[in-house]
């Protein structure tokens, strides 16, 4: 039963939870419950009523009690009871969800929470495993998904957002507030150019309505045609959430019992003969299954498959970024696609080479099939996409390089159909090697098979009876219907003929074209068809038909005797006369009217589409107006409109109105794909640039394995992209012993970076419109954008999808990763000379840890139940500043007031480090090949090296990364470290030439550096006054903005307030004495605007040092990181020569 859901025993507590929740910044209005009575056994209705009573009276929740009407389901099946159905569980599930969906649509609810728990997940996966499902079926129930079994219910399944936003009180309100509108207006007014406005007013507006008058000489204005306005794309719908999948049934029942909430269990769940699920549940509870089929193993397998599916989805996203998806037409449901090519890399010689190639081809085909499923979803009318296994032939057609023998594939691809989608190859070049575009459209309808039809009834007789046509009222709001699985259509019909939506039929095209008013309208029709639906695609468009000519039918009604009788009657009298008639009289009126209409048709000589029926169709008060009645076949179909093209017979909208929308399309597929060749080229350029930068850095490092005074910035590039001084001396050009060419064979020139808001001083100074250029604070989450957003506070968690993987042309052999430590508390050196408030760090979740060496490396922690321990263990500890002692120098100590002192890693930083380790293993263990399993007796651990700096917090981070990768803490792992004075990972070695280069950049000899200090003079004066920094005594704060940057960002990273000035205030005590105390002057504080300007100056300084100072920037970078790059090059060279390790991590 669906009454198992979130359990609360306190209604005010539920209200507090509701008030704290929001969707798109819109508060949750209320909770509503749904109880479904399946009516499978006696007493089920009483039980459902009891559940509703508890939810309503005890929890104060509005509850809807629904029941399944099995009589409608069993009609025509030959079965008398639902239990006799061979697919009872499937039918019950469909009926249950459709009942719920209808209620959700009526109540305008967008989120449905189901109480599926861990045991349900286990049963689902085990059932699918028994049934022979492949990996996608073993993923289990999703934690969030669209509501199932309700694809054709508008407002529930992937639809309803447009109507919601158009309503007076939308569920989710995206409209800007008055404050936002005023702010937008102020910004727009600030951007206006008064002189330009005045000049445009003097010139006046154009006399022509056309923007480009020069087009007139090429195209006559009478022939100009704009494309049809595309139908809107639906969005929204109800999402199903399963938040309890991580909790077992026993825990949920215990929670209910602890809170006094009765647990209701459907008795049919214990009938092992009723459904397969019941049988599986009975087996798992009453028998001991093999370990591989028990709950931990099954759920673990499902979890691993979900992780694998996430990685596969990441590969699809990268492949999609190289796929050109353009010209999507919601008018006809078509799209043009250019697929990327797969290049299979050469495999190293060795055993099982053919097997490895076959495995790689199989994986590529699987990824290609997932991409095809995404593209099919744009066009296909099918509700379910085909399984990957059924797309292998199509993968070979679309990606010939994935064939086992590509040479056997035909040179010219042919059109084909899959999932009711027609793939048509289109070549835009005569070159046979040019890439092929694929035009995807709905497959043409097969002759002799039923076509999709949506029917809409005519205006009921009781609303037409004895009324002139101009008095006929529009019917109330009509529900949307899904036509052909692609278009949502809705028709308002106030005529006396039935209306239907069916495919555009060529048999009615000529009459429709001739019904248009003039030649220009007919030319417009043909032009729109050629543009939006060429060839046979036009016959998949939705068309609006009337069953008989509506204009003629309306004129016939005006001549009827009923209308003549009612000439002098008002509306109220006509309505009263109809209601005074009994059912038989109303039915008689219906048949009389119908017979008269048939006579008029016969008189006009119109050929009937079908014979008349007997007197068995009238129902519902004598109306008999259902569109499914026999009378609809008594008229010929008349094509009156092509809704998606906006073409209709003149005057149709006075009697028949229609709306059409295209169903929801995955917008990420359209947005993440390339739009043209330039997007693909840009993607390939970025990848090539990253590889070129890496290899140039490696080659550069090889030339400076030792720090020398003649640094390579003196070299002149052989083929410069930009002009450089020709007088610069050239470096020697021998070839090294290992065959590697040195600096004269590669381009060592410096090229200026492009100008951005970062290195443009004009943008830096008081530019409050650009903020801090995308910085975020106090976050462990990776920003949504791939580039442009940085995190000064914490190394943001890199999503597994964004770890670098080799492209299809290469095989991964070696990985070296370097990353910074994670979130920590600030350095004492970052504090002001006099701090204005107390900062305690003992609430940051600090964590120092240690594990002493034991004779038994696998020895666990001490067992508290025994008196002896097998090994000693360290307590968890952290540093806290000792204060309040008699130490006379304490008042003079630098640092923060409070417990913060030396930087310590926080619990959030440790959690992020652990997640990095888990993701690294998940991404690379298959690609590298020697990380097959964490249970590999630790053999793979010997091939992975970890390196840290002398700072203890890097060791703490390494411990968490290793724990997540190995999934163990038993065996000690060495952390490689270099001596403090020569450490290349955190450069601390002495290099006189490099230090001199740094000093030159940050001195008066650099006019740009001097200019930025001059521009910052006013900001410095304000900050110095607030912070108490003495310019003469502490020049470190004024050489650059490094100290101020660290100080202010450290505060904001930890959610601390920006500082205010400390001033002396005389305070009079109770005894009358006056004492001077320091207090915050809240009128003089560092504002957020000041802090943002400090960040902008700091970014400018880093860019100036490492990018913008010509050859000096190149030299400074080499002096800082050259040794580490040389080490990296040696590692790569060792792997290439076969003497190195496979993985390293710094």
TrEMBL record:
<protein>
    <recommendedName>
        <fullName>tRNA(Ile)-lysidine synthetase</fullName>
        <ecNumber>6.3.4.19</ecNumber>
    </recommendedName>
</protein>
<keyword id="KW-0819">tRNA processing</keyword>
<dbReference type="InterPro" id="IPR014729">
    <property type="entry name" value="Rossmann-like_a/b/a_fold"/>
</dbReference>
<feature type="region of interest" description="Disordered">
    <location>
        <begin position="604"/>
        <end position="628"/>
    </location>
</feature>
<dbReference type="InterPro" id="IPR012094">
    <property type="entry name" value="tRNA_Ile_lys_synt"/>
</dbReference>
<dbReference type="GO" id="GO:0032267">
    <property type="term" value="F:tRNA(Ile)-lysidine synthase activity"/>
</dbReference>
<dbReference type="InterPro" id="IPR012795">
    <property type="entry name" value="tRNA_Ile_lys_synt_N"/>
</dbReference>
<feature type="compositionally biased region" description="Gly residues">
    <location>
        <begin position="608"/>
        <end position="628"/>
    </location>
</feature>
<feature type="domain" description="tRNA(Ile)-lysidine/2-thiocytidine synthase N-terminal">
    <location>
        <begin position="231"/>
        <end position="282"/>
    </location>
</feature>
<feature type="region of interest" description="Disordered">
    <location>
        <begin position="852"/>
        <end position="871"/>
    </location>
</feature>
<keyword id="KW-0436">Ligase</keyword>
<feature type="domain" description="tRNA(Ile)-lysidine/2-thiocytidine synthase N-terminal">
    <location>
        <begin position="30"/>
        <end position="147"/>
    </location>
</feature>
<keyword id="KW-0547">Nucleotide-binding</keyword>
<keyword id="KW-0067">ATP-binding</keyword>
<dbReference type="GO" id="GO:0008033">
    <property type="term" value="P:tRNA processing"/>
</dbReference>
<dbReference type="InterPro" id="IPR011063">
    <property type="entry name" value="TilS/TtcA_N"/>
</dbReference>
<dbReference type="Pfam" id="PF01171">
    <property type="entry name" value="ATP_bind_3"/>
</dbReference>
<dbReference type="GO" id="GO:0005524">
    <property type="term" value="F:ATP binding"/>
</dbReference>
<dbReference type="InterPro" id="IPR029033">
    <property type="entry name" value="His_PPase_superfam"/>
</dbReference>
């Amino acid at each position: 039963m669906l009454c198992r859901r979130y359990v609360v025993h306190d209604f005010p507590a539920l209200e507090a939870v509701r008030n704290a929740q929001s969707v798109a910044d819109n508060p949750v209005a209320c909770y509503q419950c749904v109880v479904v009575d399946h009516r499978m056994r006696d007493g089920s209705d009483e039980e459902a009523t009891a559940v509703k009573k508890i939810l309503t009276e005890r929890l104060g929740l509005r509850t809807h009690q629904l029941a399944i009407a099995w009589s409608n389901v069993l009609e025509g099946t030959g079965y008398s009871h639902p239990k006799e159905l061979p697919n009872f569980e499937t039918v019950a599930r469909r009926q249950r969800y459709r009942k719920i969906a209808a209620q959700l649509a009526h109540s305008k609810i967008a989120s449905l929470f189901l109480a599926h728990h861990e045991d349900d997940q286990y049963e689902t996966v085990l059932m699918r495993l028994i049934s022979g499902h492949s990996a996608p079926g073993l993923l289990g129930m999703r934690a969030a998904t669209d509501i199932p079994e309700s694809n054709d219910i508008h407002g529930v399944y992937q639809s309803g957002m447009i109507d919601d936003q158009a309503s007076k009180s939308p569920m989710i309100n995206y409209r800007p507030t008055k404050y936002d509108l005023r702010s937008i207006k102020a910004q727009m007014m600030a951007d206006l150019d008064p002189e330009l406005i005045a000049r445009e007013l003097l010139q006046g507006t154009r006399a022509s309505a056309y923007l480009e008058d020069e087009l007139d000489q090429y195209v006559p204005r009478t022939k100009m045609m704009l494309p049809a306005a595309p139908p809107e794309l639906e969005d929204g719908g109800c999402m199903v959430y399963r938040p309890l999948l991580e909790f077992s049934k026993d825990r949920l029942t215990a929670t209910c019992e602890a809170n006094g909430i009765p647990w209701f269990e459907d008795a049919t769940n214990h009938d092992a003969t009723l459904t397969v699920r019941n049988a599986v549940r009975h087996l798992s509870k009453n028998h001991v299954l093999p370990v591989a089929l028990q709950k931990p193993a099954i759920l673990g397998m499902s979890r691993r498959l979900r992780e694998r599916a996430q990685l596969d989805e990441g590969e699809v996203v990268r492949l999609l970024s190289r796929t050109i998806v353009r010209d999507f037409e919601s008018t006809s449901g078509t799209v043009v696609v250019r697929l990327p090519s797969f290049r299979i890399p050469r495999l190293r010689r060795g055993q099982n080479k053919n097997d490895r190639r076959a495995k790689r081809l199989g994986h590529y085909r699987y990824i290609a099939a997932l991409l095809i499923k995404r593209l099919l979803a744009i066009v296909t009318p099918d509700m379910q996409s085909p399984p990957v296994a059924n797309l292998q032939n199509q993968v070979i057609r679309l990606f010939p390089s994935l064939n086992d023998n590509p040479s056997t594939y035909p040179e010219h691809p042919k059109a084909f159909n899959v999932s009711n989608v027609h793939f048509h190859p289109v070549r835009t070049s005569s070159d046979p090697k040019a890439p092929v575009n694929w035009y995807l459209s709905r497959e043409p309808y097969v002759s002799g098979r039923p076509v999709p039809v949506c029917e809409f009834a005519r205006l009921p007789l009781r609303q037409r009876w004895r009324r002139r046509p101009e008095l006929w009222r529009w019917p109330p709001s009509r529900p949307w219907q899904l036509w052909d699985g692609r278009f949502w259509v809705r028709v308002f019909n106030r005529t006396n003929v039935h209306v239907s939506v069916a495919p555009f039929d060529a048999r009615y095209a000529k009459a429709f074209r001739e019904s248009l008013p003039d030649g220009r309208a007919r030319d417009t029709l043909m032009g729109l068809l050629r543009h939006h639906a060429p060839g046979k695609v036009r016959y998949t468009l939705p068309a609006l038909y009337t069953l008989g000519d509506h204009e003629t039918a309306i004129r016939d009604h005006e001549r009827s005797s009923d209308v003549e009788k009612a000439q002098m009657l008002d509306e109220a009298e006509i309505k009263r006369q109809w209601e005074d008639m009994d059912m038989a009289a109303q039915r008689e009126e219906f048949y009389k009217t119908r017979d008269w209409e048939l006579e008029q048709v016969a008189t006009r000589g119109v050929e009937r589409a079908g014979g008349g029926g007997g007197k068995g169709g009238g129902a519902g008060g004598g109306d008999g107006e259902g569109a499914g009645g026999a009378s609809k076949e008594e008229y010929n179909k008349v094509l009156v409109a092509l809704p998606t093209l906006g073409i209709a017979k003149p005057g149709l909208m006075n009697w028949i109105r229609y709306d059409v929308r295209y169903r929801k399309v995955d917008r990420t597929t359209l947005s993440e794909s390339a739009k043209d060749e330039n997007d693909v080229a840009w993607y390939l350029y970025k990848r090539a640039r990253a590889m070129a930068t890496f290899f140039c850095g490696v080659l550069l490092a090889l030339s400076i394995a030792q720090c020398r005074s003649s640094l390579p910035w003196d070299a002149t590039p052989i083929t410069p992209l930009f002009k450089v001084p020709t007088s610069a001396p050239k470096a020697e050009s021998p070839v090294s012993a290992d065959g590697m060419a040195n600096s004269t064979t590669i381009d060592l020139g410096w090229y200026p970076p492009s100008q951005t808001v970062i290195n443009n001083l004009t943008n830096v100074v008081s530019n409050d419109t650009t903020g801090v250029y995308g910085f975020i604070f106090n976050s462990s989450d990776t920003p949504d954008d791939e580039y442009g957003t940085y995190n000064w506070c914490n190394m943001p968690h890199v999503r597994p999808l964004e770890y670098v993987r080799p492209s299809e042309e290469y095989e991964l052999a070696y990985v070296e990763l370097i990353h910074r430590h994670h979130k920590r508390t600030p350095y004492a050196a970052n504090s002001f000379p006099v701090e204005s408030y107390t900062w305690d760090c003992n609430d940051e979740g600090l964590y120092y840890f240690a594990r002493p060496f034991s004779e038994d490396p696998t020895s666990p922690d001490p067992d508290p139940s025994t008196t002896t321990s097998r090994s000693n263990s360290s307590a968890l500890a952290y540093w806290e500043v000792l204060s309040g002692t008699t130490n006379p120098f304490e008042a003079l100590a630098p640092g923060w007031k409070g417990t913060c002192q030396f930087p310590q890693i926080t619990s959030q930083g440790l959690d992020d480090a652990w997640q990095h380790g888990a993701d690294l293993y998940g991404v690379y263990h298959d690609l590298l090949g020697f990380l097959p399993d964490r249970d590999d007796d630790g053999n793979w651990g010997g091939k992975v090296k970890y390196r840290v700096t002398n700072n203890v917090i890097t060791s703490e981070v390494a411990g968490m990364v290793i724990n997540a990768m190995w999934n163990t803490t038993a065996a000690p792992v060495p952390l490689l470290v270099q001596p403090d004075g020569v450490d290349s990972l955190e450069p601390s070695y002495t290099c006189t030439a490099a230090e001199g280069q740094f000093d030159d950049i940050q001195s008066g000899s650099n006019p740009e550096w001097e200019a930025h200090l001059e521009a910052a003079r006013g900001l410095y004066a304000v900050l110095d006054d607030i912070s108490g920094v003495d310019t003469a005594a502490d020049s470190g704060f004024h050489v650059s903005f490094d100290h101020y940057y660290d100080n202010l960002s450290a505060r904001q990273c930890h959610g601390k307030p920006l500082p205010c000035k400390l001033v002396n205030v005389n305070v009079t005590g109770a005894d009358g004495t006056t004492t001077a105390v320091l207090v915050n002057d809240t009128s003089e504080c560092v504002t957020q605007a000041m802090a943002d300007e400090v960040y902008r100056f700091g970014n400018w300084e880093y860019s100036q040092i490492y990018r913008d100072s010509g050859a000096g920037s190149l030299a400074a970078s080499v002096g800082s990181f050259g040794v580490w790059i040389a080490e990296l090059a040696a590692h790569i060279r060792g792997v290439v020569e076969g003497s190195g390790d496979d993985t390293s991590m710094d």
